[in-house]
């Protein structure tokens, strides 16, 4: 558990300081795969973990946007139809499409996806924990955003702010940011403005949230420094001479 928590802190710190928002997860997947002796499986495990969290977050956002008045409430039925169609199409492709060549890359990818879903996310001992952990994470991120909004002076009711904040958090998960910034602030400006709360307040709340998240992930910097120090110590240790080398040196000295 200790190394896993440290690895997650390190990944989150890298996600919030490097472009793309996913490089920390890539590093975590490679590191985990190297420890497990299978880099590909380690990367897939992290990818499925992140995807599961995004799916749970998207479902929560859709439910709230359907039930609570928001700038996009009228568009939600069409969005749900498109998402449902895409999900059905993807499921049919994974289940039924089988290229003729059993060694083709497409067939290997589809087989890996199918096996990962059956043996990873969808087994009874896995999916309840994934759903619960993702739901708690969304709730905590949402609470943090509400705190940030209040800190910059947003005084509107929580029910009005709830769907807007969820839209901002959904945009912040897109791997298109630069050190955590970009889509989050853009969505905040649009959604706050569309809700009549002021685009400037939306951007201010998003910036405050980004700073809070960065501070919360600073333990990841400590993990990086400790790991770097350990690697430096390992490199500074000189290899001891082997027995044969010692014997050869002794023979030369005797001669």
Structure in a nutshell:
Helix content is 77%, strand content 0%. The chain is built from eleven helices and no strands.
What does this structure look like?
There is one protein chain. The protein has helices at residues 2-17, 23-36, 39-67, 76-96, 105-121, 127-151, 158-172, 183-194, 199-216, 219-236, 243-254. With 255 residues, the chain is an all-alpha fold. α2 crosses α3 (39-67) and α7 (158-172) runs antiparallel to α8 (183-194).
Keywords:
255 residues, mainly alpha
Topology:
Layout: H1 2-17, H2 23-36, H3 39-67, H4 76-96, H5 105-121, H6 127-151, H7 158-172, H8 183-194, H9 199-216, H10 219-236, H11 243-254
Helix pairs in contact: 1-2, 1-10, 2-3, 3-6, 3-7, 6-7, 6-9, 7-8, 8-9
The whole-number mean of residue pLDDT values reads: 83
Beta-sheet strand percentage?
Answer: under 5%
**C-alpha geometry:** globular
The whole-angstrom Rg is: 24 Å
Q: How many helices does DSSP assign? A: 11
Helix content: over 70%
Low-confidence stretches: 243-250
Distance from N terminus to C terminus (CA atoms, Å) equals 57 Å
Q: Describe the main β-sheet briefly.
A: none
Our count of domains comes out at: 1
């Amino acid at each position: 558990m200790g190394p896993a928590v440290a690895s997650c802190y390190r990944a989150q710190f890298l996600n919030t300081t490097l472009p793309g928002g996913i490089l920390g997860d890539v590093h975590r997947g490679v590191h985990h795969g190297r420890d497990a002796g299978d880099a590909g499986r380690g990367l897939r495990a992290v990818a499925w973990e992140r995807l599961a969290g995004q799916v749970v977050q998207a479902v929560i956002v859709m439910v709230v946007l359907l039930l609570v008045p928001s700038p996009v409430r009228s568009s939600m039925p069409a969005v749900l139809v498109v998402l449902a169609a895409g999900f059905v199409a993807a499921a049919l492709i994974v289940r039924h499409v089988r290229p003729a060549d059993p060694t083709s890359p497409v067939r290997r990818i589809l087989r890996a996806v199918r096996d990962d879903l059956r043996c990873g996310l969808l087994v009874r001992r896995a999916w309840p924990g994934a759903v619960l952990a993702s739901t708690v994470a969304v709730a905590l991120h949402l609470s943090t955003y509400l705190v940030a909004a209040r800190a910059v002076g947003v005084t509107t009711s929580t029910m009005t702010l709830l769907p807007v904040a969820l839209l901002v958090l959904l945009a912040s998960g897109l791997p298109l940011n630069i050190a955590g910034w970009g889509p989050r602030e853009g969505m905040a400006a649009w959604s706050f403005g569309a809700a009549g709360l002021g685009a400037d307040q939306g951007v201010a709340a998003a910036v405050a949230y980004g700073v809070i998240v960065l501070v919360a992930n600073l333990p990841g910097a400590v993990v990086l420094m400790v790991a770097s120090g350990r690697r430096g110590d390992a490199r500074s240790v000189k290899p001891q001479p082997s027995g044969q080398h010692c014997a050869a040196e002794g023979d030369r000295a005797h001669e």
